[in-house]
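Hi U.,

Before I forget, here's the chain from the pilot set. I'm dumping it here mostly so it's searchable later in email.
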Amino acid sequence: MTDFTFTISARDGAARTGELMTAHGPAATPAFMPVGTAATVKGMTAPDVAATGAHIVLGNTYHLMLRPSAERIDRLGGLHKFMNWPGPILTDSGGYQVMSLSKLRTITDKGVTFQSHIDGATYDLTPERAIDIQRLLDSDITMVLDECPAFGGDKDAVARSLDLTLAWAQRSKDAFARRPGYGLFGIVQGGVFDDLRQQSVEALIRIGFPGYAVGGLAVGEGQETMFRVLDVTLPHLPGDRPRYLMGVGTPDDILGAVMRGIDMFDCVMPTRSGRTGKGFTRRGEINIRNARHAEDPRPIDEHCACLACTGYSRAYLHHLFKAEEMLGAMLLTRHNVTYYQDHMRAIRAAITAGKLTDFAAATRAEWSKGDIPTI
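Structure:
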């Protein structure tokens, strides 16, 4: 079996393109991972996700722990077989839910006690249990259990949270069973405080991980602050390891983060937006529910080769959403995930050509023009 490796093939400024090799195959970077929280990218089959150009997807430890359980997935052959996804899978450890489900959990030095949002049952999630769940799922990339502090916390509270996260990172590494093709990522926390971010980086490097994630961003701080935190964090991370920005984001967020040295992304935005009528195009965003699309025979994006754009009109998609037909959400989700993967392919090509700055300027100029009016 192959080793877990990260190879950089080209650089352009701080940006880099390359390949992540895992037990279940390669993933080109910079990579956007569609979110399959509960073992499904909502509204899409696994072959449909692969057809967009996605190489790697994300699952979630917390949600799969509750339903159907990691033990059941293990008995059924692992997450790849369970969801019919043969490629690499990264699983989030549940740290984000420590923040987002704050009314349903209690945190101690040992770990987190959750009250299930499904049936109220109580679960304990320790760093060791989080690692074991991800082993049962057969995740190619396992994430340490962390505490993601909510935006707006005072520095002392964020510092205490960071101390806990770093202790859990060590325990997570101690619990991780090394095997060919599988990797464990540490998670940089520290809120919006530069010195805490650097303290986090230094401690995680001492522990040592095959890859590093930057967590605790895209939680309300705004793009300018997010980019500032990346500017003070990324130069201190090992240059030969993959860097993953968790839960980000818009196409412009991704572009700016790549230019600062990020290699991996995930976000529910393309799928959640697809279910609510928002479409991403090379001329910016559209709302397919708007009346101006009701008689528009054009595709969402004339440059897109997805099924929604090659087979259906804006008028038809508008009708589907107005009629509350599930096909509308499915087609728009497929388009959005395709757009994100097209965006990543174009970014990788621009880095390889040494023209990322020009690409970024041209892409942002197109976004700023807005959607082409109905003819």
